[in-house]
Amino acid sequence: MRPGYKADVEFENFCVRFMDEPKIQLPAVGNHPAHPDKYVVQIEVAAQSLQDDYELRVRIFYCPSWPYRGAANPDLAALFRLPKLYQNEPVVVVDRFGGTEAATLCALTTLVQQLSRDQHVDVYIYAKF
User: Fold this and answer.
1) Minimal CA–CA distance to 63: which of 34, 92, 31?
2) Distances in Å between the alpha carbon of 26 and those of 33, 75, 90, 129?
3) Looking at the domain assignment, is residue 67 inside a domain?
4) 108: in domain
């Protein structure tokens, strides 16, 4: 771990405080058992305003064993279940390529939610970005 990694970081108008960093084991899906090396790191931080009495907790998900392209992957199905746990809270998803795979996960998760809510999806609205 880097020195100062968990130290508070102050900016002009806000401060970011480290809260917690648990590993979340990806659950078993169907006939595929859970693997001990398949996990997601959840980094929880709090962004606190220095001028107002306001604090916003944010969860950052990092998946070192991101399920890369290929055949159907049970780990990918487990990843789709994570946003349901944090529906009403800010979430940041990070991948090793600078956002392309995280953006795909966010778009697909949103489309699945839209399909269950509206019984149809508008793929273009998410694909155009």
Assistant:
1) 92
2) 10, 7, 20, 29
3) yes
4) no
Other beta carbons less than 10 A from residue 86's beta carbon: 12
Q: Is the pLDDT of residue 11 over 80?
A: yes
Digit-coded pLDDT (tens) for 36-85:
667 778 888 999 998 888 898 888 877 776 655 554 555 566 666 666 66
User: For residue 45, how many other CB atoms are within 10 A of its CB?
Assistant: 20
Q: How far is the C-alpha of 121 from the C-alpha of 74, rounded, in Å? A: 23
84 lies in a domain? yes
C-alpha to C-alpha distance for 120 and 45, rounded to whole angstroms: 35
Residue pair 91/57 in contact by the 8 Å Cβ criterion: no
Look up the CATH number of the domain holding residue 15.
3.90.190.10
Write down the pTM of the prediction: 0.58
